[in-house]
């Protein structure tokens, strides 16, 4: 897993040969951006999780000090407010010896006071990496195109990759492996679901998705998810029946029904999502070992207290793992770090 082939053309006056050597897979990650897990292979996602689990073990369990990011800084651009994304990134980056710089729309108004193109070039000379939490995914694409440093998607209207990395680490810790698990998504066809769909099959995870009619995932995302499912031999179900999605699942997942920027749609959405609240009755058709995830913040109409605060709920370990996985991601994108613990089982 931690080796890839790197090939180079070697020229001489007499011949040209192609030389291939084994190098650490971290070199394949260093310097890259992370806008969507669609761009990452199965082995690359597993390595990100391995690095995250390694840092968690060494720092939290063994109380080691690892200044892997000493002398480095991260610009955190937030068009949308956040608790977990801000706290996990600021505390995680600082814990590794780096300097986080938080920028709100009052500090840096992307595309208004200064173009995204110019902002990307300016920040490329002032810091080492950018995490941007934005409304439009196209903003991230423009930043990534113009920047000479890695750009991380802290959330966009299309994807939320850093949330899904935390979810996978949480499930790996709970179940011991990911391959063969069945995840049921019951809720809106939103950015978090899109990130599940772009990565679950790569880890051997089956997906059962229930969304109300009119709230389905993007058609292009469905098409790619079907291709990935066929390629990796996993199952993908799309339905409008929450109980059908929950049937036989190991994990029940939901998210907010009303995202930031959709407040005017709240009444209609609450009506359209009736019957989608996750309860113990929903879990009655799942596997006996079923668990629950929610990326937070949570509203009671999405999941009742009996499930949310039960022993089946992994929401608070999931929230903590936002820190360890963002740490694993930035370390992988900025350094040649090699994990010290044995490879995790996936």
From TrEMBL:
Gene3D superfamilies in the record: Aspartate/ornithine carbamoyltransferase
Location relative to the cell: Mitochondrion matrix
Assembly mode: Homotrimer.
This protein's pathway: Nitrogen metabolism; urea cycle; L-citrulline from L-ornithine and carbamoyl phosphate: step 1/1
Transmembrane segments: none
Cellular component, GO annotation: mitochondrial matrix
Species of provenance: Salarias fasciatus (Jewelled blenny)
Domain Aspartate/ornithine carbamoyltransferase carbamoyl-P binding as annotated: residue spans: 32-173
Enzyme class: transferase
Keyword Ligase annotated: no
Record-listed E.C. numbers: 2.1.3.3
UniProt KW keywords: Amino-acid biosynthesis, Arginine biosynthesis, Mitochondrion, Transferase, Transit peptide, Urea cycle
GO molecular function, one term: amino acid binding
Aspartate/ornithine carbamoyltransferase Asp/Orn-binding domain ranges (all copies): 180-332
Recorded superkingdom: Eukaryota
GO biological process, one term: urea cycle
One Pfam family hit: OTCace
High-level lineage: Eukaryota, Metazoa, Chordata, Craniata, Vertebrata
Family per similarity comment: Belongs to the aspartate/ornithine carbamoyltransferase superfamily. OTCase family.
Protein name: ornithine carbamoyltransferase
